[in-house]
Design brief:
Elements: H1 5-12, E1 29-35, E2 47-51, E3 60-65, E4 68-74, E5 96-97, H2 106-118, H3 123-130, H4 140-153, H5 169-181, E6 187-192, H6 198-211, E7 215-219, H7 227-236, E8 242-245, H8 251-262, E9 268-271, E10 283-288, H9 306-317, E11 321-325, H10 330-336, E12 348-352, E13 363-368, H11 374-379, H12 384-396, E14 399-403, E15 412-415, E16 432-434, E17 439-441, E18 448-450, E19 463-466, H13 470-480, E20 486-489, H14 499-508, E21 514-517, E22 530-535, H15 549-561, E23 575-580, H16 586-592, H17 596-610, E24 617-625, H18 628-641, H19 643-649, E25 651-653, E26 657-664, E27 667-676, H20 679-696, E28 703-710
Parallel strand pairs: 6-11, 6-12, 7-9, 7-10, 8-9, 10-11, 13-23, 14-21, 14-22, 20-21, 22-23
Antiparallel strand pairs: 1-2, 1-4, 3-4, 3-5, 15-19, 16-17, 17-18, 24-27, 24-28, 25-27, 26-27
This protein binds adenosine-5'-triphosphate (ATP) and zinc ion.
Length: 715
């Protein structure tokens, strides 16, 4: 290799082995660069910048934009495009090139391009949203300094590995099947009961890949919720580098971890949805734990599904993808059902029905609340029978978990005199009463005020809480079970960093008898002393207008039930209690028998009959404005404009409607549903419609923003 500065520069930016290093160029060339430009700004494609030498696609750089200088990524020249400077066009020059970093891999750019086109955004918006924010702040020199420091501190990781548990018979079968098919890079759905030992499968699969010199990517729903899982991974890879990637890291840490990934120094990446874009140069396997979890769907900006992108990534890179859950999403279940059973037959399905150690799943008990005398329910959310069962656990020194998916003390305060209620001034929602700091808080916009001493409308001093949240439930449990150590885990008690870990370790250490909480505690945790789980008020989801509500509720309850009886010796006395006014409901019947397959079959039949996903494909066009009529008017205009286009693509457009929580932070929200039997047809329609959306946007005075949501979670 030559020693002249220009050939050194060319060599650093040269593509991987095999390709000719580009000759030092004298004429400046045009480099396509993607930058963070939101969709509505009208910039969809890459921008051209001048560079004195060709830059490998994937190179990070800084470019001028207006009066600012922004971070960008050199992008691929599309076939037919010329890198010569076009006549009569003035292009600006690249401001700085991050030569010290390897370019982002081609597979990474392909994934970003796919996500941008599928979710109707610009590649730049997707790319910049998934790069560590800290990168934007750094100059090339500062980054180089960070890299030097990072490399100096990269000591070989140490730690000794304990003895591995011998795989159960089912685990052994699954491992064998996975090893046999790995070469075909399949997508596998691992349907394993709660406590069947799915994590052990992930660990061993990851180990196989890492030992072969490749890297494993493991996605989890919310890393902070499961510190236990991170520890298990760390403990299992001594001498290897396990790196976490999620938005809870400090900016400096997130950059450091991301750099380790890009430099190929990380053997295993454990991360949340944004980690699906981790630029691993030697990827060998993608695992998606709890693949049904709604948090895999990004809800703002580029609204991507990390689970779906994981599958795309596997295809792009030719590596296996393993999706795991005790309650798979109906989409994945449908994909894994063989065609002979009415499914799509796209994924391989592997099953682990038994719990580790041979323990059974908890007995499900339904308490018919409609039979209880009114007096009983006036003061307490807890039926006498459930209280009795909790006392039994206390007497035996076992733990219980009480689930209520609503935080705060009471969802609303009301005046007993004039009927005033604690509405939020900025949202179409009630403000929740939090007793601890005596505040009324809006869970949508965050507006927080002291509880008024008297009714703001009539001055009556008697204002009362209606309904109950976890804070009130905790108080009632402490009263009803004297001497019991009651703990609570929800978004309020865990705001302080480290608080969740502390409370969870108290639970694991047996210092809590009854744990109250929201869905945060219902999933993933490997509690060893829990023999009772109770859902206090789960009925609301039965009558929701959202077609996914039953699926979500069933999965939540089944996951919650899975926290009980995880230690085999206690499993036969483990119980899941459900307090309900509708004990006959089919959802509870399926829960009683732990029959996910039957529930899925019934739901899929309903979805097919109603023309809902996975049998049709949906997208939402959302619009926000100060007034509802303005938002809806714009939706109507762009929908009218698209009438012919929709017909041509066999896509149905529904009338605009307000969102179920119509106003949030003084913003009126409306949406329009787009539906098609064919995914490609929907894609083609959305791409063609995009021009209309941009053209019509400035014509609508008062429209604040709009966005397309492909495969929306809720409609
Ligand atoms: N082969 C094995 N031998 C002994 N113990 C095992 C084995 N496999 C897993 N375990 C233990 O069994 C327990 C349950 O396993 P794990 O947490 O992986 O279940 P899971 O399938 O992920 O459940 P969930 O879906 O409820 O999270 C854990 O404590 C784990 O350490
Ligand atoms: Zn509000």
């Amino acid at each position: 290799m030559g020693k002249s500065p220009s050939s050194r520069a060319a060599a650093t930016s040269a593509p991987a082995a095999g390709a000719e290093p580009p000759a030092p160029a004298r004429e400046p060339v045009v480099v396509p660069v993607v930058i963070d430009a939101p969709q509505y700004s009208g910039l969809k494609a890459a921008l051209g910048y001048l560079s004195e030498r060709p830059l490998t696609p994937g190179t990070l750089l800084r470019v001028p934009l207006g009066r600012r200088e922004v971070l960008g990524v050199a992008w691929d020249t599309r076939s037919g495009e010329d890198s010569a400077v076009p006549d009569g066009v003035t292009l600006r020059e690249v401001a700085a090139v991050f030569d010290a970093l390897p370019p982002l891999p081609a597979a990474w750019r392909e994934l970003v391009d796919f996500a941008a086109s599928y979710y109707q955004r610009s590649p730049g918006e997707v790319a910049l949203a998934v790069l560590p924010p800290e990168l934007r702040m750094l100059s090339a020199t500062q980054l180089e300094r960070r890299l030097t420091r990072l490399r100096a501190k990269l000591l070989p990781p140490s730690g000794a590995q304990g003895a591995l548990p011998a795989p159960s018979a089912e685990q052994a079968q699954v491992l064998q099947a996975l090893a046999a098919s790995a070469g075909d890079a399949p997508v596998t759905l691992l349907h394993g009961s709660t406590g069947s030992g799915k994590t052990e499968i992930y660990l061993r699969e990851a180990q196989r890949v890492v030992e072969a010199g490749r890297q494993a990517l493991v996605l989890v729903p919310e890393i902070n919720l499961t510190p236990q899982l991170e520890e298990r991974f760390l403990a299992r890879f001594p001498g290897r580098r396990v790196v976490s990637l999620h938005s809870g890291l400090t900016p400096a840490r997130r950059l450091k971890h991301w750099l380790m990934v890009l430099l190929g120094e990380a053997d295993l990446v454990l991360g949340t949805r944004l980690a699906v874009f981790a630029p691993l140069p030697r990827l060998g396997l993608v695992i998606v734990d709890e693949e049904h979890d709604p948090s895999y769907k990004q809800q703002e900006g580029a609204r991507y599904s990390a689970r779906d992108l994981a599958v795309v990534r596997g295809r792009v890179e030719g590596v296996p993808v393993l999706l795991g859950s005790a309650t798979p999403s109906l989409e994945s279940w449908h994909n894994a059902l063989p065609a002979t059973e009415g499914g799509a037959g796209r994924y391989t399905r592997l099953t682990m029905a038994a719990r580790i150690g041979g323990g059974v799943l908890p007995t499900v008990r339904l308490v018919d609340m409609s039979r209880l005398p009114k007096e009983v329910l006036r003061d307490s959310a807890l039926s006498p029978a459930l209280l009795g069962a909790l006392r039994e656990r206390l007497a035996r020194g076992e733990q219980s978990l009480v689930l209520l998916n609503r935080r705060g003390y009471a969802p609303v305060l009301h005046c007993t005199e004039c009927g005033w209620k604690s509405a939020c001034a900025h949202c179409s929602a009630w403000r929740v009463f939090h007793k601890l700091d005596r505040t009324l808080r809006c869970h949508h916009c965050g507006l927080t005020e002291r509880v008024p001493r008297a009714c703001p409308d009539c001055g009556n001093a008697d204002i009362q809480p209606t309904g109950r949240g976890t804070e009130r439930l905790e108080e009632q449990l402490a009263l009803a079970l004297p001497g019991a150590r009651v703990g609570r885990i929800d978004a309020d008690t865990t705001r302080r960093s480290g608080a969740l870990e502390a409370e969870l370790s108290r639970v694991h250490a047996g210092e809590v008898d009854v744990l109250v909480g929201t869905q945060m505690i219902a999933k993933g945790h490997d509690f060893r002393r829990m023999t009772l789980v109770a859902a206090v008020n789960p009925d609301a989801a039965l009558f929701s207008s959202d077609f996914r509500a039953p699926e979500r509720q069933f999965s939540l309850l089944m996951q919650a039930a899975g926290r009980a009886g995880r230690a085999a010796e206690q499993a036969d006395r483990a119980e899941m209690w459900v307090q309900t006014w509708h004990p006959q409901h089919a959802l509870y019947a399926a829960l009683r028998t732990h029959d996910y397959a039957a529930f899925a079959q019934a739901q899929l039949a309903e979805r097919r009959a109603a023309g809902l996903p996975p049998y049709t494909h949906l997208a939402l066009l959302r619009a926000d404005a100060r007034e509802q009529s303005v938002a809806q008017a714009w939706l109507r205009v762009v929908s009218d404009e698209a009438r012919e286009l929709a017909e041509q693509h066999q896509v149905a457009l529904y009338p605009p409607v307000p969102l179920s929580v119509q106003r949030v932070a003084d913003m009126e929200r409306a949406q329009l549903l787009v539906e098609s039997a064919s995914r490609p047809a929907l894609q083609r329609f959305l791409t063609a419609w995009d021009a209309t959306l941009r053209r019509k946007r400035p014509e609508q005075k008062g429209l604040l923003r709009w966005a397309v949501d492909v495969d929306p979670l809720a409609i």
